[in-house]
TrEMBL record:
SMART domains: MGS. Keywords: Lyase. It catalyses: dihydroxyacetone phosphate = methylglyoxal + phosphate. This is Methylglyoxal synthase. The gene is mgsA. InterPro entries: Methylgl_synth, Methylglyoxal_synth_AS, MGS-like_dom, MGS-like_dom_sf. It comes from Fictibacillus solisalsi.
Length: 138
């Protein structure tokens, strides 16, 4: 599966802790992240991550483009609901694309853990079938 990892500044440590805790599961998948978040995760966990630009510089939109092309299967976006974000329209667009293209999106650790456990059980295998039907490999 292709998984995007995104975290606002005040949630980066939560994302790092999450990815370290679930490293044995995550290392079996293709991981993508916005710039700073991806670097911090790689430094802490050793996971191999393809990094896009930082969110405010277009990273959210780069992930959104993959969603629109049906090339992303899950988004873990640990959002900070208490801090205004300068690039809020990009964030809203990313979440809207997840809804439009039926991509599961977790916005906090609790939902992230549910999705990771479901993925581990094989509950997301339907994403592979959809990509194969559209001629895209995983």
């Amino acid at each position: 599966m292709r998984i995007a990892l995104v975290a606002h500044d005040n949630k980066k440590q939560e994302m790092i802790n999450f990815t370290v805790a679930y490293e044995p599961i995550l290392k079996k998948h293709e991981l993508f992240a916005t710039g700073t978040t991806g670097q911090k995760i790689m430094d802490a966990s050793g996971l191999n991550i393809y990094r896009f630009q930082s969110g405010p510089l277009g990273g959210d939109q780069q992930i959104g483009a993959l969603i629109a092309q049906n090339e992303m299967d899950l988004v873990l976006f640990f959002r900070d609901p208490l801090t205004a974000q300068a690039h809020e329209p990009d964030i809203s667009a990313l979440i809207r694309l997840c809804d439009v293209y039926q991509i599961p999106v977790a916005t906090n650790v609790a939902s992230g853990e549910l999705f990771i456990r479901a993925m581990e059980r094989g509950d997301f295998n339907w994403r592979t079938i959809i990509r194969e039907r559209e001629g895209q490999s995983s």
